[in-house]
Write a structure and sequence with these properties.
- By secondary structure, the chain is of the alpha+beta class.
- It has nine helices and 22 strands.
- Strands 13-12-11-14-20-21-22 form a seven-stranded antiparallel β-sheet.
- Strand 1 and strand 2 form a beta hairpin.
- 37% of the residues are buried.
- The protein binds adenosine-5'-triphosphate (ATP).
């Protein structure tokens, strides 16, 4: 168990700035996810914590110990890689016990630790097999088991589920969350999959082009994305974006553009005034739009006229692809909705949940007036 601190840490490869300098404090027992698109610098960050990559600048602390010059094997960490990195000629038992044997641990202690880890992961029956005799999911468990036996202060995972099929990935997500709860150990997990980040992480770091965009718990990232990139990256289907301007119309303040005009509630007016005339985008999540016939008017105070393009009936909800002006939007609406392709419909909008993004990167959500 340990907290991990990165102080002004950065990494360049020649002229490529893979990770720009940043600070990060990871609490003890946190499940921290480094999330972002390919090439954003998340693996490099993890590898710096592991000691596999030298820092260009900054300091890393594991617990109270500065580890910049500490070898990976002495950092009290264990890493699980995407390709599992199992020894093919060894049995599962030998794979699990290998690092302990290297550390000259007594045989009976190794056996206890291997048996305990195998029990935690439900792989007791596989201990005498070789890796080639295992399925992808079983190999993945062995790779995790190899980390568990060492009882490290910090677990590091680099896209450990990306070689598994969708169903198994779902199962393993739940298993890793359970494991985290059971071991009560700090875990740092790299992925480009927002579902993994949202479901497993207690804290998420979103990166893009080597820059940290936001550090927050999953729901805070979902509800208060720091900028348009984060807003678009988290959520499936993603947030809808539309061009917008804040303007005065018949005594009221409106958010409007081609094909729509949403009246801003009077209480929010002072807050929005300063955005008037600025180049902004409107962001609305699909679940914050509803077929007006089924919308609770207390929540859905705005509305837009939309032309229906595609109707996907999913059972618990209906997903609509609609056009509002020139903007193509996705809405998740009540399953009782009976709208049809090519209909023109009234789409109710929850004005308390909409986002505005100044195209210079600033963002706010009208509801809470929370500025990030
Ligand atoms: P992915 O999900 O594709 O693994 P990532 O977010 O983990 O991406 P990194 O592997 O950390 O990204 O790479 C960040 C940047 O640093 C990229 O531009 C990459 O090309 C560059 N980079 C990484 N390793 C090296 C290296 N050894 N030499 C030169 N450039 C590198």
């Amino acid at each position: 168990m340990a907290k991990v601190s990165l102080k002004n840490v950065c990494k360049s490869f020649g002229s490529v700035e893979a990770v720009s300098c940043f600070d990060l404090d990871i609490d003890d027992k946190e499940f921290l996810v480094l999330l972002g698109p390919s090439g954003c610098g998340k693996s490099t960050t993890l590898r710096m914590i592991a000691g596999l990559e030298e820092l260009t600048d900054g300091d890393i602390f594991i617990g109270d110990r500065k580890v910049n010059d500490v070898a990976p094997r002495d950092r009290d960490i264990a890493m699980v890689f995407q390709d599992y990195a199992l020894y093919p000629h060894m049995t599962v038992r030998q794979n699990l016990g290998f690092s302990l044997k290297m550390a000259k641990m007594p045989k009976d202690e190794i056996k206890t630790r291997v048996d305990d880890s195998a029990a935690i992961l439900g792989i007791e029956d596989l201990l005498d097999r070789k890796p080639r005799e295992l399925s992808g999911g079983q190999r993945q468990r062995v790779a995790v088991g190899r980390a568990i036996v060492r009882k490290p202060a910090v677990f590091l995972f680099d896209e450990p589920l990306s070689n598994l099929d969708a169903k198994l990935r779902g199962q393993m997500r739940a298993e890793l969350s359970r494991l985290h709860k059971r071991l009560e150990t700090t875990m740092i997990y790299v992925t480009h999959d927002q579902v993994e980040a949202m479901t497993m992480g207690t804290m998420i770091v979103i990166m893009k082009d080597g820059l940290v965009q936001q550090v927050a718990p999953p729901m805070e990232i979902y509800e208060y994305p720091a900028n348009r990139f984060v807003a678009g990256f988290i959520g499936n289907p993603g947030m809808n974006f539309m061009p917008a301007e804040i303007a005065e119309s018949e005594g009221a303040l409106v958010i409007r553009s081609d094909g729509y005009s949403l009246e801003v509630p009077e209480a929010k007016r002072p807050f929005l005034e300063k955005w008037r005339g600025k180049d902004v985008s409107l962001g609305i999540r699909p679940e914050h739009m509803e077929d007006k016939a089924f919308a609770n008017p207390d929540d859905f105070k705005g509305s837009m006229t939309a032309k229906l393009d595609v109707v996907e009936t999913l059972g618990a909800e209906i997903q609509l692809n609609v056009m509002v002006g020139e903007s193509s939007l996705v809405a998740r609406v009540d399953p009782r909705s009976r709208v049809r392709v090519d209909d023109t419909m009234e789409l109710a909008v929850n004005l308390d949940k909409i986002h505005l993004f100044a195209n210079d990167g600033e963002q706010m959500r009208i509801a809470t007036e929370k500025r990030l």
